Structure formats: C-alpha cells, structure tokens
Amino acid sequence: MMAEEGIRLTAEQKKRRRARNIAIAAAIGALVVLFYVVTIVKLGPGVLNRPI
Amino acid sequence: MSLAEVREEMVDEAWAGGQGGVGDYLALLKPRVMSLVIFTALVGIAIAPGGIHPVLGFTALLCIAIGAGASGALNMWYDADIDRVMSRTRNRPIPAGKVTRSEALAFGMTLAVLSVLVLGLLVNWLSAGLLAFTIFFYVVIYTMWLKRSTPQNIVIGGAAGAFPPMVGWAAVTGSVSLESIVLFLIIFMWTPPHFWALALFKSSDYEAAGVPMMPVVAGDASTRNQILLYSLILAPVGVLPYALGFGGLVYGVTSGVLGAAFLLLAYRVWRNREGDEARRSAIRLFSFSILYLFLLFAVLLGEHLAVSLLTGVA
C-alpha cells in the first residue's frame, strides 16, 4: 500500500500555526474575561439577586 | 509587472495558505491607521457629556479599534491586485505572499461581525450600528466602488475615517449630536488635502495601479487648487468646537494658529509647482497635516481632562 501523499507542513509552518493558535486562544480568553467584567460592572451586586 | 499578470499569479497563490505568522495578521489590521482611529474615538468618548464607566469606555474603544482593523483587512483583501503594483503597499501581507486573499477575507469578516456584536451587546446598539455602517462604508462604498472609479474617491471615502469620534460619542450618550457632527466634519474636511498632498508626490504609483487619484486624472494644477480650497474650508471648521463652546480658549487659540499654518503650507503647495521645491512643499503639507489633526484632538482631550480635574466632574 502506498503512503498517503498529503500536504506536509515544514517545521517553520508548524511553528507559525502554533503561534496563530495561541493568539486565537488568547483572543477568546480575553473576550471571556471582558464579558465577565462587563457583567459585573453592569449588574453590580445585583448579579446575585436572581430569584429561582 | 502588469495588472493582468498580477491577477493570474494570485490564482496560483490561492493554494499557498497557512503561511502567515501572527505579525502578518496584525499587519492586516493597518496598525498605523488604527492608531489615529483609536485616538480620535477616545477623544469622542472622553469629551461626550454624561461620562461612561471606564470598563465600558474601554470596551467601546476596543470594538472601534477592532472594527477599524477589520476594515483594513477587508481593504487589503479587495485591493491585493493594486497593492502589488504600488511601491508603498508592495510589502503588505497579501502581496508579500504571507497571507492569502481568502484568509484575509475570513479574518476581516470575523473581526467585523465580532466588533459590531460586542459593541451592541455590551455598550449600545446605536454606536454598534454606526460602527457597522463605518465598516460597510469603507469596504463597500470606498474600497470596492469609489476608489477605482472617481477622483473624488477620498473625498467621499474620507467619511469612513471621520466616523470613529462619532461612534465613540454615541457609545457614551446613545445619540448623535451637533458636537459629534463637528468632530466628524473636521476629519472629513482634513482628508482631501492630506491625501492629495501624498498623491502629489506618489502619483506615479497610483497611475501604475490604475487608481484615479486626483493628480492622475485632473492633473497636478487642478489638485493644487482643490487642496487650497479644502484647506480654506478646513481652517474655520477646525475652530468650530471653540465657537460652539465645547472647546475652550486654549483650543480656540491652538486651532486658529494651526489652521493658519495649514493654510500657509497649502498655499506653498499651490504656488510651488515645479521641481524639488514643489515636491518638498507637498511632503511638508502631508507631514504637517498629520500633526495638525493629532494636535487638535489632543488639545480638545487635554482641555477636557484639565477641566474635569479642576472641577472634580468627570
């Protein structure tokens, strides 16, 4: 059976892909923190005032 | 290299995805343009009446900045063919082969949608609507339509660059008012002399790319007339914040002096039409125009902060 001929990334390309992925993760993390902080700012203590 | 060859080559490049580093994607956001947008939007946020919670103010500024960056990326996606021909833009990520056009499109669209949604959800929907309109105006009206079809391209397209302080103002007040329209007008009137001064000493670039900039289509003489004309409108418009009472005395004096200096430099561009002196005059006006806009907004901001500190009112 022949080996699969696909696109093989060079070491440099893998390094860049890793850097891009880390940047995306950081951006998503920052967005989560932003939404959390804005929620606290907007609701203040009212964030706990939630009748069940 | 001709435009046809460039276009053909770009088809081959479509296979070459996944090469860009983080820095290449940051370059797609046009960080230098973004810095001016951030600054003018910050002034809009800071001087708007009523004030805003610092976290929400920061959020609004972040969204405006990302929205501006998204416009930059979408502009580079659409303009990749002419960017390769012009010396000023040849090293941008797409012509340099670091990022493909479809990657830039996806990146720009994602950021555009995200910035508008986040601004709407966290701050208010009027400012989000204005931001969405700004991105649409820059990418569709300016980049796709006007830029390649009329020498008035940057006059009308300049509106896109003039919106940020208005978006910032709307983020705080939830409305559009006369003051924010004046801030808009200052940048709007500033754009034509600023870009035409650049086009006067870079016109061969635009010509090679087939972009109908004013000097290419109407000639240098007509461009010089129009630079002077717009400068004559800009100088008094720059003083309007003082006349309307939301700029103080320091702003009134500064804007008057800077406006006079702007007019003088525009006059020199108009008078010096030949050789090195003509080129130097255009470069001088171009450099000064950046300082002019920066100083006007900086003084407006500084004055407002000083008054807030003295009176204890934010």
TrEMBL record, chain B:
It is a multi-pass membrane protein. One of its GO terms (cellular component) is plasma membrane. The keyword Transferase applies. The chain crosses the membrane at residues 33-52, 58-78, 99-119, 125-146, 178-201, 250-270, 282-301. It catalyses: heme b + (2E,6E)-farnesyl diphosphate + H2O = Fe(II)-heme o + diphosphate. Its EC number is 2.5.1.141. The keyword Membrane applies. GO terms for biological process: heme O biosynthetic process. Its main location: membrane. It is found in: Cell membrane. Carbon 2 of the heme B porphyrin ring is defined according to the Fischer nomenclature. Converts heme B (protoheme IX) to heme O by substitution of the vinyl group on carbon 2 of heme B porphyrin ring with a hydroxyethyl farnesyl side group. PANTHER family: 4-HYDROXYBENZOATE SOLANESYLTRANSFERASE (PTHR43448:SF7), PROTOHEME IX FARNESYLTRANSFERASE, MITOCHONDRIAL (PTHR43448). NCBIfam families: cyoE_ctaB (TIGR01473), PRK04375.1-2 (NF003349). HAMAP family: CyoE_CtaB. This is Protoheme IX farnesyltransferase. It comes from Stappia albiluteola.
